[in-house]
Amino acid sequence: MAKKKTKDKPASGNQSQQTRLWLMFPPKLITTPVVWQLAKKFPVITNVRQASVTDEIGIVSLELEGKRADIKASIKWLEKMGIKVEPVEINVIES
Length: 95
Hints:
The chain has 95 residues and is α+β, with helices and mostly antiparallel strands. It contains two helices and six strands, in the order ββαββαββ. It has a single domain (2-8, 15-93), classed as ACT domain (Alpha-Beta Plaits, 2-Layer Sandwich). It has helices spanning 34-41, 68-81; strands spanning 2-4, 16-25, 45-53, 58-67, 84-87, 91-93. Strand 3 (45-53) and strand 4 form a beta hairpin. The relative contact order is 0.32. Residues 1-11 have low confidence and may be disordered.
């Protein structure tokens, strides 16, 4: 039986959770160390899962781990920087 599951762990205030996101960088931010800045600015663990960068666009699959409020603040900051943020849908097949 196939089940659709996301990697997000349910979390309340102080519990840790993991979220995978697609980040689409505009050309002006491709050479900016945004992931590093994010990790310095917010108490979250960043893990680059996949990336494709050209002169025109940067696409990064980023895993964030931390408190829900910190992850939400991180996403808001990324969007304010001009980065498009989308959740990653993960399909898990269980037998």
